[in-house]
Amino acid sequence: MEHDARHNPDDCTACSICTLHCPVAMATLKFRGPKMTGPAYERFRLAGFDDDEALQYCSNCKNCEIACPSGVPVANLNMLARAAYCQKNGHAARDMLTGYCGDLGKLSLPLPAFMLNSSLKNPLIRALLERVGIDRRAPLPSFAPLAQRRRLREKRRAGKARVVLFPGCFTRYYEPQVGLDIIKILEKAGYTVTVPNEFVCCGLPLVTGGLIGAARKRARINSLALKRRAKAGALVITPCPSCALMLRHEYGALFPEEEGLADNGHIVLEAGEFILNLILNGRLSLSKIRSVPEGVFAYHAPCHLRALGTGLPALEILGHVPGLHVENMDAGCCGIAGSYGFKKGKYEIAMRVGSGLFAALKDSGAKLALSECGTCRVQMKHGAGLPTAHPLSLLLDCLG
Ligand code: SF4
Ligand code: SF4
């Protein structure tokens, strides 16, 4: 096995709290739940027993880790066990497709959006994708217009900047406007922001797909880039909570045997966290709000934002905008968990997991659904039929 830094399962006290918080265990009997699949079965795995298919149902949403009072990294235990299983039994084509989304996204860069998006909507291509395990009902995200994708790339020439934007693959290829909006907010606070190309995909889709060796390579590249930026006194800001979680905490947790991977995670901040601090310390003033859109806005907190443990900063920011009406849906996981809900055999589970949120969104009477996570937004639109936006894009609308 490539990985030998598995956590001691004996830290688990078998309290079952994680099982109560696992959205997948609540949605399907095919999954044994965090306690059983994680620490309990880990004892068998360590004794050399083969794993079984149930492990493949963990979505890596991390709700078990958020809930566990004993600090057992249940999701990471599952992901490392999945990696070992895949090394032995081979990788599914769909896990390669979704795992290497960053590299595939790069190939899309010279191509116009209409060509990419019409291909992804073509029934023949969807049938082919289904043959490799991507459910044809899955709400695949749409590529952004070429000009927008280019505009974000051009920000790499911004010179010596103290603030670096790590857009993440979703922002880079599907919603570059989110990155551009955040840059504009930071410029209002007096920062010059650059989007350097020394960083690669954070590696989370590879971890979830059982491709731990490829994830480790991404971790090494990004850790070196973080080291250089830390030396220059820079901060790395990302609009994606999952990328923030990976760059800040997970390299050290997944690869503790590798020196230096965890050293500079502290310079990575989720964008809402950074901007809230700017507001609280007076560097960004909300006194110059130009316009406040009417109506109700519905907010969904991504699981990986909650796993970061930094609160709900974007919701707090919007709460400081006088007259803006934002409601926290507080209705649990949306089900998509990165690419989990795109996969055949998982699509129905993901829709069942998200059903509470979809109902809350529909009942809210909101005209726009907000969330920091790109794939949560895709799933919210798919499940509740509402248009969506990153909460900081709404903030920029208000700032004008
Ligand atoms: S990561 Fe999510 S799906 Fe997996 S065991 Fe934990 S709570 Fe359940
Ligand atoms: S992993 Fe944590 S929450 Fe789950 S049963 Fe063990 S101690 Fe309890």
Low-confidence stretches: 1-5
SS element count, helices:
21
User: What is the total domain count?
Assistant: 3
Helix content: 40-55%
Pattern of helices and strands: HHHHHHHHHHEHHEHHEHEHEHHEHEHEH
Radius of gyration: 20 Å
Search tags:
single chain; 400 residues; Fumarate Reductase Iron-sulfur Protein, Chain B, domain 2; Rossmann fold; 3 domains; four-stranded parallel β-sheet; 21 helices; 6% strand; disordered N terminus
Tell me about this structure.
The longest helix is centred in the middle third of the chain and has 20 residues, at 212-231. Residues 1-5 have low confidence and may be disordered. The protein is built from 21 helices and eight strands. The protein is α/β, with parallel strands linked by helices. Helices cover 51% and strands 6% of the residues. Residues 12-18, 34-35, 38-39, 67-68, 70, 72, 74 line the site of one iron/sulfur cluster (SF4).
